[in-house]
Known about the structure:
Distance between the termini: 29 Å
Oligomer: single chain
Strand content: 5-15%
CATH superfamily of the largest domain: Type I PLP-dependent aspartate aminotransferase-like (Major domain)
Bound molecules: pyridoxal-5'-phosphate
Structural class: alpha/beta
Strand order of the largest sheet: 2-10-9-8-5-3-4
Number of strands: 13
Number of domains: 2
Shape: globular
Amino acid sequence: MPKPKLFIPGPVDIAPETYAAMAEPMIGHRGKDFEELYADIQPDLKKIAGTSRNLYLSTSSAWGVMEAAIRNLVQKKVLNLCCGAFSDKWYGVAKSCGKDAEKIQVEWGEAIDPEAVRAKLAEGGFDTVTLVHNETSTGVMNPLKEIAEVVKSFDDVLLVVDTVSSFSAVPTPMDELGIDVLLAGVQKALALPPGLAVFGVSEAALERARTTEGRGYYFDFLEFEKADAANNTPSTPSIALLYALREKVHSIVEEGLENRYARHEKLNAMLREWGAKHGFENFAPEGHESKTLVCFKNNKDIDVSAFVKAVREKHNLLINGGYGKVKGLTFRLSNMGNETEESIQELINALDDVIPDFL
Ligand SMILES: *Cc1c(COP(=O)(O)O)cnc(C)c1O
């Protein structure tokens, strides 16, 4: 039996071209071949991120860089904007780094209110804010532009944004929005195998890092900056994943960013329509729905884990039965990465086939 095709919100299905790229011959990472590979990735990656500065390449999952942002930037106090599993955990990570941290916590399934951020920052004492743009656990897409505007209206407060499940699928223009650290793990919206994260760091964030103690080595922003000047990484990177990244960013620019955004919008609408047809409500509030996955409320009270199992057994497709404390109370379908109208229609046909047994 082949492995099921993944429609879970990460890791997602990998294109054959990606696997092929990863099989290119190994090279040494302290030589010209590697410098060319590194340099070849940058123009397209910068275009996708909307920044004039190179992005750094971290051989880690997203959490490596999420923790790094805390360790490099927080000197006074961080404000963590919490609305689901990943954003909530960032607060715990800040605490475990020994940093002073406060949070704005909303219910899972709600979005962050920019005005609440303004009120909290107005209390003073903060120098960093963390935001998860697309909270993959709840299918909520936070109002990035509005929150960025609020944060930017406070002097010396840096904004760190996790775009793990939105990068390249919706616009996240780093420079235009004044984002200080923009990061993404590669196994979700970018549809690469896990093990790599990409991140942009603003001048202001580098300036802050210069005077922050306890940055460590592996995730020290200044080490990345120094290595980047020579088209390199501080320590040995996952070269196979960089081959995959090069292939991927080239193919994204070839697809065209506007086309890619439109494709995600279209495929996401197809999934939402499927849910509406069977009476499932969105877990996200109207206007704050993710464009890369749907998280449905289990308002029909179906046996979610049996449903997921049946879709897998009958059709060899894998969907997700809810994350963390909303497991069973929600279920999620992903349209991120390489999905097409055909592949999403295949998923819908399978769901249509199985759902009558559960309603
Ligand atoms: C998956 C995910 C993460 C965590 O990624 P790891 O690869 O486990 O480090 C962080 N943020 C968001 C929004 C995610 O979806």
